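Tutorial handout. Part one gives the primary structure; part two gives the three-dimensional structure as tokens.
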Amino acid sequence: MINLSKAPRLVATDLDGTLVRSDDSVSPRSMAALKRLAASGVIVVGATGRGPRLLDLCRRDIPSADFLVLGQGAFVYECRYDDSVVEMTNRSVAGEVLHEAVARIEAEVGPLRALAEPADPVRDITGDHWPDWPWPAVRLETLPRELAFTGPMVKGYFVSDAISGTELLEAAMGVVDLEKVVITESGVGMLEVCPVGVDKAAGLQVVLDKFDIGWEDVLAFGDATNDLPMLKTAGHAVAMPNAHPWVKEVADEIALDSNDDDGVAQYLEYVLDELV
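Part two.
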């Protein structure tokens, strides 16, 4: 049973593992529910770890979004008017800081594969060879780390072939300088090292400030540890049934169905039919 008691003014949803199905699609039912929500006057925000190189994919997956929070919160885009996109904020971290971070983590857990995503969109994501990179639309270039990790960066991607993403996250938190970077894990076993002060809650705050909306009026959906800042702060947080245990612990409730069974859409249909 859904226990939300009042209509939200803003709905924020993670994409992969939450709205997007395991076959990388978004169902017509989900599309319809989000379109109805936006038409009702509720602000819709897609909040994802995907970087700005995947902006077009994000717009395809959630075309009803008024705003997109990308790169774990480093980039915020307004996309409310036709096909126009306005960048509201962007944050970067020095590549040398990421290079230092990967060295510290490797000293603790052993070899990692590491990539750096440059803030300059002309540059490719570069670093170690990564045969199972999950985003084939984004080009990778194999380069020595001393060349890859130079200049302003969106974030770094680190993965271990020996331990899980959660274990890697816990180990990294103990050795990396958290005054220089934020560390999170996006639910696919991949550690992401981002600019300090960056998370999904910080990105959403940019949107909330624009409309003078308080967190008590936010409904948020998520499944992975990178969703924790957003879910902890939202007035009402919904975890997916497939969510990480840490996410379920902080959520106000668990969606009745998974991302593959339109759990977000089902919840939003209730909001639209009963509360809006």
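Part three, for discussion. The first strand starts at residue 10 and ends at 13. The mean pLDDT is 94.
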